[in-house]
Fold:
Amino acid sequence: MKISPHSDESTIWQPERVADLLDYRSLNFHKTLRIQLTQHKDKLPPMLLIAMLACTCLTACDPSQQDSSGSPFGRSGPVMVIAKPVMTQRYIDRFTALGTARANESIEVTSRISSVVTRIAFTEGQRINTGDLLIELDNAEIHANLNIAEASLQQKRSQFRRSSTLGKTRVVSDAELEELEAGVQMAEAEVRAAQARLDNSYIRAPFSGTVGLRRVSLGNLVGPDTIITTLDDAETIKLEFTIPESFLSSLGKGMTIVATSAVYPNKPFTGTVSSIDSRVDPVTRSLTIIAVIQNDSNLIKPGMFLTVDLETERSDVLLIPEEALIPRQGRQFVFIIEDGRAIEKQVELGVRAPGLAEIRSGLTVGDVLITEGVQKVRSGAQVEVLSSS
Structure:
């Protein structure tokens, strides 16, 4: 029995012909069956519908009716795709580093001794020089101890001189002379110690810079834990920022960088790289860079947030269109063409640009990559290239 797409409906849908339908698995029958199922699915008896679906399954399972791509409709020819050879390109990596401005020298001014503030010799925001007096502490007792140490030293020196004269006549032994000389040295050390304590009562600037806000008043008892003020040398700013290890080859000491701040959007700050950290952070895979920026106009304040735009050029980057990628279970795959057939390959991605993706491994230069039509392709299927994209 033969069935055509134009057969009379009453002829086709007779239940006694179900067995014939089950044995009939030609390509024309399958197409006819699909047409009739579409047109008459609402009029078919349930048993006949089941039988016709069984015919479809048998046809699909018959290897003789399938082509190399697994299609149950016979050989439909190669899949049409668009492909292009993989080539290296020049690519510029761009990175915006976030940095923090730090003063060239910066300290919190404190006292080495505990005493009461008797004089404040600076004003907030004042520019001072190295050695300028900032704070004077009560030192009356320290002065008295210094006077005692100096008097003791004078006495011991006199004794030593008189004994030295008597020693020439052997009235004083050599051992006694050595003991008197040691006493003089001890007295000199006590004077130096008293003088150091007195010097500690005068708090001076260790370097030139700008003092910050005053944290104490006259009469305050201060000690080593008390912050009196801050002192910053901000004429030179150290900009500290981190970069990925991939940018290490593009930076070196003396290299010029340009930093910007949201506070001054139209004011670039030019500096030079002064130091590069000797270690890469094993967690973040980044390293710290310090650049020096001259701050003569005093626009940059310590602690400000700055950004640095970095660029590095690579000439041997494999870039492919993003539409060629097939994501699957957290991995990325592509199709290449070998001997007229599609071959699936897993790839490792690098950086991404708009519409492009870097391939770090999985492809080589010259591979013919399928860029369009990947949804219709299966590994091992025959393909025909319509054109090169």
